[in-house]
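hiii so um. not sure if this is the right channel but i have a protein structure encoded as tokens and i wanna go backwards to a sequence. like what aa goes where. can anyone help
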């Protein structure tokens, strides 16, 4: 009961791995934040650490692809109707 387990020495040398986002991930994040193309270019470039000129072409290409893949007419779902009836507590 009194035995304390020691922490392995290798655990003290752990390092957190940092993986910067890829270009497509950064563009998707920028598109989620704003609809303006110039702002998307700036945000994606800052996330990746690249100049805006290198990112601009890819942002415009991804934007064109997403517009083509979305149909012009989108059906909206009918809202579900929920009826909640309150009952009085039972008499015991």
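sure thing!! here u go:
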């Amino acid at each position: 009961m009194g035995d304390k387990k020691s922490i392995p020495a290798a655990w003290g040398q752990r390092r957190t791995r940092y993986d910067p986002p890829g270009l497509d991930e950064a563009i998707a994040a920028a598109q989620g934040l704003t609809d303006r193309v110039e702002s998307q270019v700036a945000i994606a470039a800052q996330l990746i650490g690249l100049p805006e000129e290198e990112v601009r072409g890819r942002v415009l290409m991804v934007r064109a692809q997403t517009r083509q893949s979305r149909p012009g007419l989108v059906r909206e779902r009918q809202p579900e109707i929920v009826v909640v009836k309150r009952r009085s507590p039972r008499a015991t």
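oh and The mean pLDDT is 83.
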